């Protein structure tokens, strides 16, 4: 049965046993995190050490009285004892990411002048009392994990020396294990998005590891076995924790153990279907694995009547369909006109900070081969020939996933030599001048702006990342921050949209701010509410607020959305062939990789069910 619920009563503890039993039956162990969100609680009665509102919350918290603090400590202990009754093997006390405990330990949010605030000793008293009290109430074999904020990434946060001292005291208070958190939710430094280099926070983990003798667990942007192994082998950490990579591939550990790491469906750090769904009150799933969080909605039944299917188009939808269909026993031939699989994903992988798309494509290539899909590259399917092969009985069915083409707006000068499309720039490396206008500010407009102005090594070189985002990797400053050293912009870029209002409103909730911060730093100009007039040798002519202006640019990049590329489908239908149409070829508007993958898998699943009846 689906399970949901907090753990505040014995009845709730009994409900949690559904989870703990299932994990134990499968030979696993499970700890439960005790999280008090403090001033991040989305609630008018939120409480915190001091009455200070977080910039990411509409609610100003109430200040806890001294008795209120004691009551919270007792609540942590009660929650831990209930977790024990519920069958958990341990608890993790959440002391990082800017939640209640972290708000006590940082001078920034703790202006108290009682035994729980003031100097360092008094600020760390709250977590230490919690750990001691929990330890005293649970047996030795019940694991007490403390998630420590290794680097607050907030002005007025703890220094590295204070973090190390807190780690030592948490160990003395009775913790068995330290899990390492990074940054606060309101930090202006990204901590886990794709533009953060893999294992970037190792220096903060090392600071804690050197301070204690209990095991230390690293987290954040550890998405492959190689990265995890490196952290362990180098002695940086004793364990690694992963969350998103296990949504992307629940078999991550087994595949690693069996030497099949190349088959892992790698988390690309996009946050698009996990965190962004949670932040917009939708059920979390995963862009590369739409089964995540919806496991009960899918079955794995093989098709009773395997069919011979030809799929045209090796983008996200075509690959997802082919893989799911082949896994269910159909014989699949996948035709791709280009020299490699991937379609629009091949454009995404060029964008700085989206290098993880290379791994997504590697997974598809390996998985398609293992599933026995016959991939034919450089084959442009023609309707008459395909129809003839189907009518001759070579294939039982055809799926058309021919994707999209960039939209060319109906604009005077749209074919001027200085105009290129986003596909020309990202896919063909078309030359782009020093002064650029981008027409259209959807996800692709922002991607192109980033491609044109950002240093490409920021998301792969930790030292570069720290410098650009203002992180003190010596951990000497409070909160681990120092002045950012942004590189000079490499181009002058202006972005335009016809809609009024802020550009980038529809970017991902947890990643859009990062992109906008990067473009602000690169002095990208953004103009909304424009009416385009024409493009000529002078540049892009437009009107805004009743005034006519010219963006004097060398290049105009069209990022004005897409149109379905469905002529093959139409021709097949005209020839009497019943074809299935999926992905961007079916509906170009608001197409993203999640929808394309989901749709491909869904069709393969429904079809196989139909073939079993
Ligand atoms: P999009 O989000 O639909 O944006 C298209 C842009 O072009 C809009 O800014 C639109 O704004 C403008 N436009 C539309 N028709 C136009 C016309 N005839 N003339 C001039 N401008 C026009 O499409 P996209 O940026 O190509 O992205 C495609 C899909 O990929 C989207 O679903 C997007 O969410 C997804 N994507 C997501 C990410 C990500 O990071 N999550 C990255 C890339 C793409 P105005 O009409 O106001 O001018
Ligand atoms: Fe990773 Fe993106 Fe999936 Fe989230 S949605 S688990 S970030 S691949």
How many whole angstroms does the radius of gyration measure? 27 Å
| Heterogens | NADP nicotinamide-adenine-dinucleotide phosphate, iron/sulfur cluster
Shape: globular
How would a crystallographer describe the biggest sheet?
A: 6 strands, parallel
Helical/strand content category: alpha/beta
- How many helices? The count is 21
- Cα end-to-end separation: 27 Å
Helix content: 25-40%
The main sheet orders its strands as: 1-4-5-6-7-8
Mean pLDDT across the residues is 95
Describe the fold and architecture.
It is a single chain. With 613 residues, this protein is of the alpha/beta class. The strands form six sheets. The protein has a six-stranded parallel sheet. Helix 19 (512-521) links the parallel strand 16 and strand 17. It is globular. The site of iron/sulfur cluster has 14 residues, from helix 9.
């Amino acid at each position: 049965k689906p399970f949901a619920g907090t753990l505040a009563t014995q009845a709730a503890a009994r409900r949690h046993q559904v989870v703990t039993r299932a994990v134990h039956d499968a030979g696993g162990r499970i700890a439960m995190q005790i999280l008090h969100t403090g001033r991040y609680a989305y609630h008018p009665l939120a409480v915190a050490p001091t009455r200070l509102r977080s910039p990411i919350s509409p609610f100003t918290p109430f200040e806890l009285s001294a008795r209120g603090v004691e009551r919270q400590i007792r609540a942590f202990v009660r929650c831990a004892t209930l977790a024990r009754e519920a069958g958990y093997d341990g608890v993790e006390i959440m002391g990082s990411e800017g939640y209640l405990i972290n708000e006590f330990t940082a001078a920034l949010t703790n202006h108290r002048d009682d035994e729980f605030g003031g100097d360092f000793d008094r600020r760390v008293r709250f977590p230490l009392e919690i750990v001691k009290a929990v330890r005293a109430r649970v047996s030795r074999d019940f694991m007490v994990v403390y998630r420590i904020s290794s680097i607050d990434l907030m002005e007025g946060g703890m220094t590295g020396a204070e973090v190390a001292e807190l780690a030592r005291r948490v160990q003395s208070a009775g913790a068995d294990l330290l899990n390492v958190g990074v940054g606060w939710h309101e930090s202006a430094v990204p901590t886990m998005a794709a533009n953060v280099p893999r294992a970037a926070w190792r220096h903060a983990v090392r600071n804690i590891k050197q301070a204690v003798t209990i095991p230390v667990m690293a987290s954040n942007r550890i998405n492959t076995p190689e990265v995890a192994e490196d952290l362990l082998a180098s002695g940086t950490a004793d364990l690694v924790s992963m969350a998103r990579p296990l949504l992307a591939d629940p078999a991550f550990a087994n595949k690693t153990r069996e030497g099949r790491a190349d088959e892992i469906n790698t988390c690309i750090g996009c946050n698009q279907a996990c965190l962004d769904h949670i932040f917009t009150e939708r059920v979390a799933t995963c862009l590369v694995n739409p089964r995540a969080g919806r496991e009960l909605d899918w079955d794995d039944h093989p098709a009773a009547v395997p069919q011979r299917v030809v799929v045209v188009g090796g983008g996200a939808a075509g690959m997802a369909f082919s893989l799911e269909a082949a896994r269910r026993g159909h014989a699949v031939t996948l035709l791709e006109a280009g020299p490699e699989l991937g379609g629009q994903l091949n454009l995404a992988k060029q964008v700085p900070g989206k290098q993880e798309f290379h791994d997504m494509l590697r997974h598809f290539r390996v998985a398609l081969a293992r599933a026995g899909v016959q991939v034919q590259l450089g084959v442009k399917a023609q309707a008459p020939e395909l129809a003839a092969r189907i009518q001759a009985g070579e294939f039982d069915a055809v799926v058309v996933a021919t994707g999209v083409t960039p939209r060319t707006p109906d604009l005077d000068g749209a074919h001027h030599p200085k105009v290129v499309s986003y596909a020309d720039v990202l896919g063909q490396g078309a030359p782009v001048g020093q002064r650029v206008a981008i027409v259209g500010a959807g996800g692709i407009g922002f991607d192109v702006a980033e491609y044109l102005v950002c240093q490409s090594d920021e998301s792969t070189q930790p030292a570069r990342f720290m410098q650009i985002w203002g992180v003190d990797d010596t951990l000497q400053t409070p909160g681990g921050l120092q002045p950012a050293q942004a590189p000079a912009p490499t181009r002058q870029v202006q972005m335009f949209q016809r809609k009024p209002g802020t550009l980038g409103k529809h970017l991902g909730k947890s990643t859009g701010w990062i992109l906008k911060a990067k473009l602000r730093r690169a002095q990208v100009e953004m103009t909304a509410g424009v009416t385009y007039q024409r493009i000529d040798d002078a540049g892009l002519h437009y009107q805004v607020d009743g005034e006519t202006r010219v963006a004097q640019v060398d290049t105009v990049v069209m990022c004005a959305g897409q149109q379905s590329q469905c002529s093959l489908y139409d021709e097949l239908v005209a020839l009497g062939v019943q074809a299935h149409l999926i992905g961007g070829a079916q509906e170009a508007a608001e197409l993203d990789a999640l929808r394309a993958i989901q749709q491909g898998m869904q069709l393969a699943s429904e079809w196989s069910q139909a073939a079993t009846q």
